[in-house]
Write a structure and sequence with these properties.
Order of helices and strands: EHHEEHEHEEHEHEHHEEHHEHEEHE
CATH superfamily of the largest domain: Gcn5-related N-acetyltransferase (GNAT)
CATH class of the largest domain: Alpha Beta
Largest sheet: 14 strands, mixed
Number of strands: 14
Helix content: 25-40%
Shape: globular
Mean pLDDT: 94
Distance between the termini: 30 Å
């Protein structure tokens, strides 16, 4: 039976698009389901400001009248303008283990990209650099943090056979924070603060963090500007991210550093919600909120979500101050495990820091690329 590709056009189609992932990973003990409502909002122009600067096409694959795969094709125009290139990016690619299906999905996306004058396809990449990035190719027997990704192990073989190559890899680490390392980092942070006149924002609740929220994302724009796949977040996107995330953060694991009363760097950690999200099964109500609340109150480990330092201060040790303060708060609350986000494997400076801890490099995810002109 041949594969039929259909464009997603209605709200009902969007619900089917989102539901496919839940059907595909049902029973997989390492998959962490996102919130269904969040996924649906991301796919709608009225609730995702990225549609203002991206061309988007959502596609689903059917075989024997059953949904067997999905893909989003995205042209991020600011990214292409920044790089002087013509890239189409694919996102949220999921499919059953059938090479006719993966081929049909990607060929349909490529045909659309060619019609728009694109010369390359790469991904998985989301609407922005804070959206889903990369395909897991190593580390399938580890539970991912909520800021990471998880995929079926057979995906890599499908992409290889379809002629995609490696563009970039991210690696992820699990760190064990020891008391000796913490004391050493604390001494170094103290010296750095005295030398440069840095100060820490002392927060007693999330209300103390809110005034800095927008500035944090603007720092992120500057700090990440030269990294692959990054374009500055618009004011509309920043406002959306502030509304979505700041209210759920635990102030104990958010660290802010100032210089002359100006915010210059931040670190956002969050109690791990992976197991809680599995129990919630994609819904906060009626019962999903309870495991999430318990995980926030009594976390077993901390996930690194975001960190950013203004470029002019990146060589002055601000990151040392931030991580030292995070470690201190973790140990004070009986937590010694930190899950990092993905870092480009070429980023030797950051990776060398993680290797100073008892650690494992347990996950690898890939951005694939293929010429289509």
């Amino acid at each position: 039976m041949s594969v039929t590709i259909k464009e997603v056009k209605t709200n009902s189609d969007i619900k089917k698009f989102v539901k496919f992932q839940y059907d595909l990973y049902k029973g997989d003990k390492f998959w962490v389901p996102p919130m269904i409502s969040d996924e649906e909002k991301i796919l709608k122009p009225e609730s995702n400001p990225a549609f203002d600067f991206c061309d988007v096409k959502l596609l689903m694959a059917y075989k024997n009248d059953k949904c067997v795969g999905r893909i989003i094709a995205i042209i991020n125009h600011p990214y292409n303008e920044k790089n002087g290139a013509k890239y189409g990016r694919f996102s949220r690619l999921e499919f059953v283990d059938d090479k006719e299906v993966s081929k049909a999905l990607l060929e349909e996306a490529i045909a659309w990209f060619k019609g728009k004058g694109m010369e390359y396809i790469h991904g998985p990449l989301g609407f922005t650099n804070l959206d889903n990035q990369g395909m897991l190719i190593e580390g399938f027997d580890y539970l991912p943090c909520v800021a990471s990704v998880y995929h079926k192990a057979y995906y890599k073989e499908h992409l290889d056979e379809l002629g995609f190559g490696k563009e970039n890899d991210w690696v992820e680490f699990r760190l064990t924070i020891g008391e000796n390392a913490t004391k050493k980092a604390s001494r170094g942070a103290s010296l750095i603060m005295k030398r440069y006149g840095f100060k820490l924002i002392e927060s007693k609740s999330k209300k103390d963090i809110r005034p800095y929220a927008t500035t944090m994302f603007k720092i992120l724009n500057q700090a990440f500007l030269e990294l692959p796949y990054v374009v500055p977040l618009s004011d509309e996107l920043i406002a959306q991210y502030v509304k979505k995330y700041i209210g759920i953060l635990d102030h104990k694991y958010v660290k802010l550093v100032t210089k002359d009363d100006k915010l210059i760097g931040f670190f956002v950690g969050m109690p791990s919600l992976s197991e809680a999200m599995q129990k919630a099964k994609g819904k906060l109500l009626p019962f999903g909120i309870f495991p999430i609340m318990r995980a926030m109150k009594n976390p077993a480990n901390i996930d690194m979500l975001l960190t950013g330092v203004l470029p002019e201060y990146q060589s002055s040790g601000v990151a040392v101050v931030l991580i030292a303060e995070l470690q201190k708060s973790m140990l004070e609350n009986g937590i010694d495990i930190l899950e990092t986000t993905g870092v480009f494997e070429s980023n030797a400076n950051v990776i060398s820091n993680w290797k100073n801890y008892e650690h494992i490099q347990h996950k690898r995810r890939r951005c694939w690329v293929k010429e289509i002109r």
